[in-house]
Design a protein that fits this description.
This protein is α/β, with parallel strands linked by helices. It has one domain: Glutaredoxin (3-Layer(aba) Sandwich). It is 38% helix and 26% strand. The protein has a five-stranded mixed β-sheet. A two-stranded antiparallel ribbon has the order 4-5. The chain has a two-stranded antiparallel ribbon with strand order 6-7. Strand 6 and strand 7 form a beta hairpin. The protein is globular.
């Protein structure tokens, strides 16, 4: 019994991980034009913040799953977008900027453009764009491994 408890404690503490730290290859919007010239693919944009616990959960579970990683790396260009990024991003000839919303806080216009649904931006959000940068899919909640695999499989075909 003590060995079982010790083993579980080591897993929880991260000394003996249950899974590998697989991560999809992440690119930036700056790289997107050259990536699309090399191989046209749909683009998966994961919109998150540093303070969002659900975002961190999705990063540490769904996006570290080996099957999800393989689907993303083989069929899509994956971009991780911090919704509070303070730099400018140029996409499709348009410049998107950080918009302050209060003292020391704000949101990036591109995060709003890609993640907003029914006038609201929630975290985490997932947006899938076609190779012409048109929105194919949006989802504004924590997505499980099963859900993510279903969406990616459905869109890649």
């Amino acid at each position: 019994m003590l060995r079982l408890i010790l083993g579980l404690w080591m897993v929880v503490m991260g000394w003996f991980p249950l899974s590998t730290d697989a991560q999809p290859a992440a690119y930036t919007f700056d790289q997107l034009d050259s990536l699309q010239q090399a191989s046209e693919r749909n683009v998966v944009v994961f919109i998150h913040t540093d303070w969002c616990k659900f975002c961190q959960t999705m990063k540490n579970t769904t996006l570290q799953n080996q099957e999800v990683e393989s689907l993303l790396n083989e069929n899509f260009w994956f971009i991780s977008l911090n919704a509070e990024y303070r730099g400018d991003i140029i996409l499709a000839g348009r410049t998107f900027s950080f918009k302050p919303t209060g003292a020391g806080t704000g949101v990036h216009e591109l995060a709003e453009e890609l993640g907003r649904q029914q006038g609201e931006l929630s975290y985490p959000s997932l947006c899938i764009l076609d190779s012409d940068l048109q929105i194919l899919f949006q989802y504004d909640q924590l997505m499980s491994v099963r859900q993510m695999k279903e969406v990616l499989e459905g869109i890649k075909e």
